[in-house]
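Progress note, sequence design subtask.
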């Protein structure tokens, strides 16, 4: 180790940072807001561990959320300890789980002794394969299943992902649905005595409060998580209604938790919603079975299977615990339940007696946004999971102006779930500590009558700054959601203001990829003469804007198809071919299918997208997708999409 570099960096740390660097033994939670120097702290702490103990670099595990953050940490560490930095285990949570799987394959073989099926984890799958598996599952569902249909694919994949991040299995999800339904039935039996004669809720606050107090008594008499949540929200609503002498809080609660049944009586929650949860659990189960049959696993399975394997194989768990003597967790507020469970398994070495050498660094205020299943309760759980946890709060901000910190502090203080408010003797009063910032910061708050006026004002402000000599690359527009920025881009384009806009986007979820995917399925269905699938997909595809077909004609075809279906079945394709407006487009799809049968996948996709033309009835034909997406008019209209 280069002691001079370590000493130089250590001297630059403030007192709180030094305390965190020096606290190398036992559990430590560091509350670190933006600009408080946590990345430097992590690097210097690793160097300090190597300096003060006999620990090998390979025995230190550092986990963060992105490859970029991992590389940044390694670069900083290399500047201090040189090549030894490459031996420190710096990973993302998922790459760490992946390494465990790849380095210990003998523990990741699931052999069912009843049928001899070997479901080892061999092939990770991507988003396309996920969609393919989900499509197969939904195609095989009974027609009366409420979740049958392509439009549920992305939602189901998202729900399954969220469940895995929360460490919820298909059986857990089923149990939740069944338990919720039982609670709802018990509540509704008791509510009948209250609502039998009530057709409309009282308009006077006092009368409404009396009525809902009775509902509160019913909810209090029944045990269960769902009922408990509803009851706590109702108690809050009653308190606000009494304070404001208003029925609005109670109406809001009613809209969320009550509904009218078939006999026009109020009842609690929605049994059908929980029945759908049960169906989701069944699909989740089928999805996992499909993965297992093909020895495949998805992104979230890396962590879930690692947890399961560690719990079922103490030998592997104990060896990993012996290997990793010090654990450092970056961006801890972003951890979800599954990631936190994995870490507790690695850290829970009996020899530590509940005080492992683990440090978590996070900002509870950022955790409020629950990124990718993240849960601020994990930060509280960290304190509860280990004995005598040391808590250090970094309060010196080296990035932001005092005025900005002051404003942010006043806003953040309105958040009830801030971590330091739940832990005794912990404060989080951020102060500006940089000497390199302007003397004054100008913060204005503006309100507008409409979104268009707001967008117009922003553009005028930007244009004015540029005219005054400020570089466009020195102006930043920040928004809580991408859709707001996307709405702003056309306004900036109108004023010829140069824009640099980056957005992480899953290309599988874009409209164009979804269209190509559905057309590809139609091409295959035409080849296989799968009339049922064509009945479902053709109306969806021909409704897309680039076919430029009349919605009325598609509606007429749907109406005729439905009418024929109840007399003598006539395929949607056949009916569409008899429609003068729809016939050219349907015929084109039939011809595309014919070409695709004799060519490879790449050529077939070229035809579908229009990058390659084909001849139909001696006339050159190009897919309308190409004309639509390369139209100058459309590009100017929506630059971001095109």
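Output:
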């Amino acid at each position: 180790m280069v002691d001079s570099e370590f000493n130089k960096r250590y001297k630059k740390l403030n007192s709180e940072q030094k305390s965190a660097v020096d606290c190398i033994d036992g559990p430590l939670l560091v509350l670190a807001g933006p600009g408080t120097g946590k990345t430097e702290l992590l690097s210097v702490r690793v160097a300090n561990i190597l300096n003060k103990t006999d620990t090998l670099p390979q025995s230190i595990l550092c986990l963060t959320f992105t490859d970029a953050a991992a590389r940044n940490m390694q670069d900083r560490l290399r500047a201090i300890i040189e090549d030894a930095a490459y031996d420190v285990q710096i990973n993302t949570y998922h790459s760490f789980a992946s390494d465990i799987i790849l380095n210990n394959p003998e523990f990741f073989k699931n052999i069912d002794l009843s049928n001899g099926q070997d479901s080892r984890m061999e092939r990770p799958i991507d988003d396309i394969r996920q969609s393919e598996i989900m499509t197969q599952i939904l195609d095989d569902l009974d027609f009366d299943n409420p979740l049958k249909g392509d439009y549920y694919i992305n939602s189901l994949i998202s729900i399954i992902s969220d469940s895995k991040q929360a460490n919820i299995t298909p059986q857990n999800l089923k149990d939740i649905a069944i338990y919720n339904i039982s609670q709802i039935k018990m509540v509704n039996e008791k509510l009948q005595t209250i609502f039998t004669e009530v057709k409309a809720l009282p308009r006077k606050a006092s009368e409404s409060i009396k009525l809902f107090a009775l509902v509160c008594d019913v909810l209090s008499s029944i045990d269960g998580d769902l009922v408990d949540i509803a009851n706590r929200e109702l108690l809050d609503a009653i308190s606000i209604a009494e304070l404001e002498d208003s029925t609005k809080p109670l109406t809001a609660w009613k809209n969320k938790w009550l509904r009218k049944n078939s006999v026009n009586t109020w009842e609690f929650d929605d049994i059908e919603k929980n029945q759908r949860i049960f169906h989701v659990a069944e699909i989740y189960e089928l999805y996992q079975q499909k993965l297992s049959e093909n020895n495949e696993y998805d992104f979230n399975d890396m962590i879930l299977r690692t947890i399961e394997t560690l719990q079922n194989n103490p030998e592997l768990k104990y060896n990993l615990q012996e290997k990793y003597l010090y654990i450092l967790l970056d961006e801890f507020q972003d951890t979800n339940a599954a990631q936190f469970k994995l870490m507790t398994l690695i850290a829970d070495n009996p020899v530590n007696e509940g005080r492992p050498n683990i440090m978590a660094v996070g900002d509870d205020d950022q955790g409020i946004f629950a990124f990718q299943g993240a849960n601020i309760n994990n930060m509280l759980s960290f304190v509860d999971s280990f004995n005598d946890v040391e808590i250090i709060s970094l309060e010196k901000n080296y990035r932001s102006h005092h005025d900005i910190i002051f404003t942010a502090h006043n806003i953040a203080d309105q958040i009830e779930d801030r971590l330091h408010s739940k832990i005794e003797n912990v404060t989080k009063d951020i102060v500006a500590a940089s000497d390199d910032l302007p003397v004054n910061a100008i913060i204005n708050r503006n309100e507008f009558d409409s979104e268009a006026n707001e967008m117009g004002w922003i553009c005028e402000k930007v244009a004015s700054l540029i005219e005054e000599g400020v570089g466009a690359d020195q102006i930043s527009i920040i928004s809580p959601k991408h859709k707001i920025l996307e709405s702003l881009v056309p306004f900036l384009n109108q004023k010829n203001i140069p824009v640099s806009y980056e957005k992480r986007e899953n290309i599988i979820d874009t409209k164009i990829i979804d269209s190509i995917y559905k057309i590809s399925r139609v091409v295959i269905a035409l080849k296989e003469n799968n009339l049922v699938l064509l009945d479902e997909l053709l109306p969806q595809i021909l409704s897309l804007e680039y076919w430029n077909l009349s919605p009325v004609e598609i509606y007429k075809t749907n109406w005729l198809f439905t009418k024929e279906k109840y007399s003598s079945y006539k395929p949607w394709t056949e009916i569409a071919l008899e429609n003068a407006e729809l016939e050219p487009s349907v015929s084109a799809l039939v011809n595309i299918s014919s070409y695709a049968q004799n060519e490879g996948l790449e050529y077939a996709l070229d035809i579908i997208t229009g990058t390659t033309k084909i001849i139909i009835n001696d006339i050159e034909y190009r897919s309308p997708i190409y004309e639509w997406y390369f139209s100058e008019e459309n590009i100017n209209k929506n630059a971001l999409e095109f």
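The mean pLDDT is 86. Work on this subtask will continue into the next period as scheduled.
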